[in-house]
């Protein structure tokens, strides 16, 4: 597109699309420097304990093996900001899968064979890896992830609940979930004796550069981190992970360029996961369906290496008006891998439980679940009392209901059948906070009349390059084809990671400011450009991160139709529709892709994705894509994503809200609520796999004591 067609909002194709589909886009493990070698880690085989010995002789005897690094000979590291990166520094084993060695070899095959040949002996210790709501080690932390207070509320929720005309007191369970990006975590490190260059699969090069400087005692100006193409992350690449630290260690030790590409089976234990969450919800309402009390209490687990508390009770502080509210997080430190961010941390599992409980209350009251949500729309944010910068959840619910044909729905469970199939439909709301962080960007004129924009953004498949170029073209008032954009280079200046649905808002703000400044200077010069060109730089520190008097959130509504096979227990989603209020949509094509991607991930959370912690060994048996079932094409119907026009002047210069995560929030609840409508059975543990559903159907048909009679 050129000319006036390039305005923000246009469905512009991704700039890197052709490179990706033709295979010319290079990812972190694909930089073939002269003399490059490969490294393969050695994971611990005990759930807790210490290494008592390492026999590397057999590995070193293999052809091509160059070195075996362990806690005995690995480079010493500075104190990391993230304790999960204190690799090969101690014989301690905090959990199974913790890396206790690294084999460096001429080829990937030799490195893998060498890792298998390393013999490690341990002194095993007793371990505890099982989360329960009554665990004696549970405590209330100071804060949950994101700096949210672990406990918050107002009024007397217990007293209000006890006197409510309608009540639900229910428990929901979300299992451990894993990010599993298409590209496993990989890094290629090059050390020339003075300068370190890293090609990484990271969601943010600034954070990687900062941590590497701390760990290896280098000044940041001696480190360059590049991440030109990243094959997904979903939060697991949001901070530096072991691959980059191990690659740099090996490069320093051998003097050769080194690539570390983590095997997929190792990812669940070393790059973070969504921790299991146990939810108790107590909702009270008066006879008219207006909430009198909302209480959401969550128990989750963290590792003994680092405290990470999934902030799953936080959405209850945002969603509905109630004179009494309590939200509380409790956490248990176990001998398990360290959890971390996974797409829409907090809001994703929290809204699954909350929106399922709201559906239960609607059934209890005999009120339409769309109408119940509308009746409890708050005037201000319940937790802070701040006015919303914009909140169009009611419009999303009404528009979604219209498009979905909700008015023709028979509210009675089991009211629709198609042979052995039970058909049902469900709804759930969605919310996600609006965030922006400081960033630097530059814009310069080029001799050919074009413009070069540089920002250390990371494109993890979201279309960041394209949207930032659109922002630049809009600010400069020029056709899109005159914008050249370079991203993902730490030398361009600091930038936040691609996460928290804040990437475009943060990078785009700096790009907008730099280009606006350059446009102003061009106007002053009547378009005359000196031979050396013009350059404008922007730093949004103090503005992008300034405190706002408004509560800023995106909202949405999900609708789902399912069939439940009474013979096999299989659940199939036949229709799924989402309507979102996410500020100004900057690219209709990439926005729809993000909404649908989130909805698909929510479908997987609802139906197929499941993980357990093995109590005997302390790790995740479901460690690959054969056992951890990410939805395939056959699982996904034709999804529909729409949005309402939203003009919000209190966000950023573009008026945009994040869209990467709002699509997954609430989508699993919509599916679960549809399954209840189809079957009349309330399943309160995910995923809704055939064995779980079929057991429920049999118990429904044959109550306790009647099976087998």
Quaternary status:
single chain
- Rg over alpha carbons: 26 Å
Low-pLDDT parts are none
The average pLDDT value, as a whole number, equals: 96
The secondary structure category is alpha+beta
Query: CA-to-CA gap between the ends?
Result: 70 Å
Largest sheet geometry: 7 strands, mixed
Number of strands: 24
> Strand-residue fraction?
15-25%
What is the approximate shape? globular
Number of helices: 15
| Amount of helix | 10-25%
Neighbour order of strands in the largest sheet: 3-5-1-12-9-10-11
Which secondary structure elements does this structure contain, and how are they paired or packed?
Blueprint: H1 17-22, E1 37-43, E2 49-55, H2 57-60, E3 65-69, E4 92-93, E5 99-105, H3 108-117, E6 119-124, E7 151-154, H4 157-162, E8 166-174, E9 186-191, E10 196-200, H5 205-216, E11 223-226, H6 242-254, E12 258-261, H7 267-270, E13 277-285, E14 291-303, E15 325-334, H8 347-365, H9 369-375, H10 393-404, E16 417-418, E17 421-433, E18 440-445, E19 451-455, H11 464-476, E20 483-487, H12 503-524, E21 535-539, E22 553-565, E23 571-581, H13 588-607, E24 639-643, H14 667-679, H15 690-701
Parallel strand pairs: 1-12, 10-11, 14-15, 19-20, 23-24
Antiparallel strand pairs: 1-5, 2-4, 2-6, 3-5, 7-15, 8-13, 9-10, 9-12, 13-14, 16-17, 17-22, 18-19, 18-21, 22-23
Helix pairs in contact: 8-14, 11-12, 13-14
């Amino acid at each position: 597109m050129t000319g006036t067609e390039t305005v923000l909002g246009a469905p512009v194709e991704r700039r890197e699309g052709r490179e990706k589909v033709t295979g010319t886009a290079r990812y972190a493990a694909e930089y073939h420097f002269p003399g490059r070698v490969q490294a393969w880690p050695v994971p611990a085989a005990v759930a807790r304990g210490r290494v008592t010995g390492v026999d590397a002789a057999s590995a070193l005897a293999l052809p091509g093996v160059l070195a075996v690094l362990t806690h005995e000979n690995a480079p010493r590291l500075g104190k990391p900001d993230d304790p999960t990166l204190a690799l090969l520094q101690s014989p301690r084993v905090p959990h199974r899968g913790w890396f206790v060695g690294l084999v460096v070899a001429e080829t990937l095959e030799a490195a893998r064979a060498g890792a298998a040949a390393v013999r490690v002996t341990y002194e095993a210790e007793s371990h505890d890896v099982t989360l329960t709501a009554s665990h004696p080690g549970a405590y209330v932390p100071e804060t949950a992830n994101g700096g949210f207070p672990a406990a918050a509320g107002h009024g007397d929720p217990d007293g209000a609940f006890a006197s409510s005309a309608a009540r639900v007191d229910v428990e929901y369970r979300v299992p451990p979930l894993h990010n599993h990006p298409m590209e496993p975590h990989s890094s290629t490190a090059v050390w020339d004796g003075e300068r370190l260059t890293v090609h990484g699969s990271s969601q943010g090069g600034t954070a990687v550069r900062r941590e590497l400087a701390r760990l290896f005692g280098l000044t940041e100006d001696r480190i360059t981190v590049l991440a030109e193409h990243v094959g997904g992350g979903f939060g697991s690449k949001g901070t530096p992970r072991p691959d980059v630290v191990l690659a740099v260690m090996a490069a320093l030790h051998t003097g050769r360029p080194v690539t570390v590409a983590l095997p997929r089976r190792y990812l669940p234990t070393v790059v973070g996961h969504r921790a299991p969450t146990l939810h108790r919800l107590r909702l009270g309402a008066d006879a008219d369906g207006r909430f009198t009390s909302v209480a959401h209490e969550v128990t989750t687990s963290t590792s003994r290496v680092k405290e990470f508390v999934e902030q799953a009770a936080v959405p209850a502080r945002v969603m509905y008006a109630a004179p009494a509210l309590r939200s509380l997080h409790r956490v248990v430190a176990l001998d398990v891998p360290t959890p971390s961010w996974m797409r829409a941390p907090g809001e994703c599992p929290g809204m699954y439980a909350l929106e399922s409980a709201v559906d239960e209350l609607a059934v209890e009251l005999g009120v339409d679940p769309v109408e119940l949500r509308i009746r409890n729309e708050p005037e201000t944010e319940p937790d802070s009392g701040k006015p919303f910068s914009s909140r169009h959840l009611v419009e999303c619910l009404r528009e979604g209901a219209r498009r979905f044909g909700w008015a023709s729905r028979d509210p009675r469970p089991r009211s629709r059948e198609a042979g052995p199939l039970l058909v049902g439909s469900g709804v759930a709301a969605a919310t996600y906070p609006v965030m922006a962080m400081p960033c630097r960007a530059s814009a310069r004129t080029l001799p050919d009349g074009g413009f070069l924009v540089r920002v250390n953004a990371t494109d993890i498949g979201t279309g960041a390059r394209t949207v930032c170029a659109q922002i630049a073209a809009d600010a400069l008032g020029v056709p899109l084809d005159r914008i050249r954009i370079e991203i993902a280079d730490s030398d361009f200046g600091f930038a936040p990671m691609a996460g928290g649905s804040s990437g475009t808002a943060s990078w785009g703000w700096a790009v907008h400011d730099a280009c606006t400044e350059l446009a102003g200077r061009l106007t002053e010069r009547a378009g005359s450009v000196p031979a050396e060109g013009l350059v404008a730089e922007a730093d949004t520190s103090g503005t992008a991160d300034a405190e706002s008097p408004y509560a800023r959130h995106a909202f949405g509504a999900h609708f789902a139709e399912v069939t439940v096979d009474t013979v096999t227990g299989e659940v199939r989603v036949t229709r799924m529709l989402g309507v979102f209020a996410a500020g100004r949509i900057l690219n209709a094509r990439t926005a729809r892709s993000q909404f649908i991607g989130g909805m698909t991930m929510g479908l997987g959370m609802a139906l197929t994705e499941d993980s357990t912690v093995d109590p005997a060994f302390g790790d995740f048996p479901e460690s690959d894509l054969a056992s951890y079932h990410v939805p395939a094409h056959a699982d996904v119907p034709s999804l529909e994503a729409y949005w309402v026009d939203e003009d919000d002047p209190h966000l950023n210069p573009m008026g945009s809200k994040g869209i990467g995560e709002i699509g997954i929030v609430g989508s699993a609840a919509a599916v679960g609520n549809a399954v209840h409508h189809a079957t009349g059975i309330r399943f309160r543990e995910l995923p809704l796999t055939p064995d779980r559903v079929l057991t429920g159907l049999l118990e429904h048909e044959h109550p306790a004591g009647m099976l087998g009679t």
